[in-house]
Amino acid sequence: MKRLNLMILSLVLASMFVSCNYLDIDKYFSDEIKIDSVFANKRNAEAYVWGIASEFNDEGSYLQNADTPGTYATDECFTMNETLHGYNGLRLVLNEINANATYTFGDVWTKGYRAIRRANTVFARIDEAWDLEPVDRAELLAVTRFMRAYAYYKMWLNFGPLILIGDEEMPSNLELADYDRARATNDETVEYICSELEEAAKYLPVTRPLAEFGRPTKGAAYGLIARIRLYHASPLWNGGDVAKRCFGNWYRSTDGVPYVNTKEEDNSRWALAAAAAKRVMDMTNGGAPMYKLYTVASTTESTKYTWEDGSVNYLPEGVTSDPSFYESWPEGAADIDHLRSYNEIFTGEAIMQTNPEYVWGRQSSTLRDNTQMCFPIKSGGWCAMALTQKMIDGFRMVDGRQKDDSSDKYPYSTEGFTSGAKTFSGYRLNSGVYNMYVNREMRFYANVGFSERFWPMESCTDSGDKNKTIVYYYSNENGRQNSPVDYTPTGYINVKFIHREDAWTGTNARRMNKAYAIIRYADILLMYAEALSNLDQEYTVTLGDQEYTVSRDTEEIKYAFNQVRHRAGLPGLSDAEVADHETFQPILEQERMIELLCENHRYFDVRRWGIYEREENIPIQGMNIDGDKDTFYQVVVPNTSRIGARLVHKKLYLLPIPLAEVRRLPSCDQNPGWED
């Protein structure tokens, strides 16, 4: 009878007012009906807490139906596939998204506040679980606090300043006006999220059993803090010209307070960001470093430094800019396999549960399934994830030089083709490959699918479905002539997550399981280098209960940055490159663009640096897909109106809050540019 009465009550109340999605009152009633049983014991309480995670999409789904606009909303990739297939980042840049009721990213707002409300229910009622031991209770509350902070973090990335609910367990019987809240300022939002993560970290475990891979740890909390602190210190949110240009006229309607401080830069924020990254770097487990870059040892014992025979176990000759380059890893780049060390992080070859580079990661079935976007049409794929020429040109030569400053020994050439095949680290570089793709750094071969590339697809047992050379020339079976949508508009494909055994057609075709690194140690190292470079003096800051003293120490910058470079087989920074921030910043921007390619970072990087409009206004280019081999290898703007329709607009620094929310909550202001 009690259950029936509550069901009737929920229907009556639901008809009395339109609920606010940010509190998800509609769902409150169905939860309230069973809430007594939820907290009747430890087992049910734990299940309810872990169920909060169901409000978060698979983080590896940043291509389709994602929580963030992702790669297709950047200059990294483009696709000709229909946007109705969930390519919401593409819909954003094609101006197909607004703030109305069908708004695609609106469920991030709804789900985020649903997770927050569920977390607050845990805080209010956890003590009802009579058999919950104090230690278990502390960890369960830490997990709840982490997930609540993570919900805020995911919304903050998209929407900026948020409505902060605190620990309030919103009653279900208030008038609509009682749910009205104004948004906090951006600084208040950031401080709240970071303080919640700091509190959660106190009781989160340092490690978890292999079976619990993906659940939050102390390192996950510290890593998120490092990223938030870095973003908060960046020009978009930290005063100065960029903040003024984007948010100079954005004030809270309830009291006239600016949402973003645009008066002057607070350089101490970079100190907090540097300290937060260093804290992750300093974490240990059993006396050993908790996190480090994933590497695979070289199998050669040769001491020769040459790339002439195609082996990546040898380093290129003639590098003088980095005195430590020829030393053994990690001081230098010797004795590791640079292609495998980078490539295996993503393909599924490295054991995800024990990969030391994952500060926080999770197995992602979506990421595995989305490799189909990258496969050729005649091999069961969609040819959808097309890298742009800007990304291709961003990869350095094997000796670390830029392509426009290549050496005589490792030249960059836009003429002719290779005359013979060679193999390195299990990778086959075919004969007949365009010379533009020769002598490039190892991350190029891990990321880029180009015409005449060799595709193993080794899980197939049918000879006709494996060991294929794929081209994208117009009249080829994988070219534009054969499909109106399933072709690459640039002549390139992203292959970052494709294992040599992965296949979509043929007998016994299968795909390796993939993991998505929500926070990768290489990112932490680059965060640290960036934050240090921005410092204008020595600072002493406090994180948790520990003090950190940081300054623009060029040796520290090189220590962090060079690990990423050396792992890729490239020389580290010269003294001149790190001498001042203005010189180093574009080097850092290029390094993040390449190291973190198609990992859902560039969308946020170009915005926080304030270079979004500059970078996105550069026309997308690629090979001439309307030509066959004799005319294909020309850099052109693809012949498609879709690329020309891409929107670059200041309003795209943030996503719109769902229109229904703004209408129901008079105190909740819309994001700039989305008011209409």
Task: Tell me, briefly, the overall form.
Answer: globular
Stretches where pLDDT falls below 50 for ≥5 residues? 1-30, 301-313
Strand content: 5-15%
Q: How is the largest sheet built, in terms of strand order?
A: 1-5
* Tally of strands: 14
The biggest sheet, with number of strands, parallel, antiparallel or mixed sense and barrel status, is: 2 strands, antiparallel
Report the end-to-end length measured between terminal Cα atoms.
48 Å
Rg computed from alpha carbons, rounded to a whole number of angstroms: 26 Å
Q: Helix proportion of residues, in percent?
A: 25-40%
Count of helical segments?
22
Mean pLDDT: 90
Structural class: mainly alpha
Walk me through this protein's architecture.
The protein is built from 22 helices and 14 strands. Helix content is 36%, strand content 7%. It has helices at residues 2-16, 25-38, 42-51, 88-93, 106-125, 134-159, 186-201, 218-233, 240-247, 268-281, 338-347, 365-369, 389-394, 442-447, 521-533, 554-567, 581-595, 602-608, 612-616, 629-632, 641-644, 659-664, and strands at 77-78, 284-285, 288-289, 358-363, 386-387, 422-424, 427-429, 448-449, 453-455, 468-470, 493-494, 515-520, 539-543, 546-550. With 676 residues, the chain is mainly alpha-helical. The strands form seven sheets. The chain has a two-stranded antiparallel sheet with strand order 1-5. The chain has a two-stranded antiparallel sheet with strand order 2-3. It has a two-stranded antiparallel sheet with strand order 4-12. Helix 10 (268-281) packs antiparallel against helix 15. A hairpin with a 2-residue loop joins strand 2 (284-285) and strand 3 (288-289).
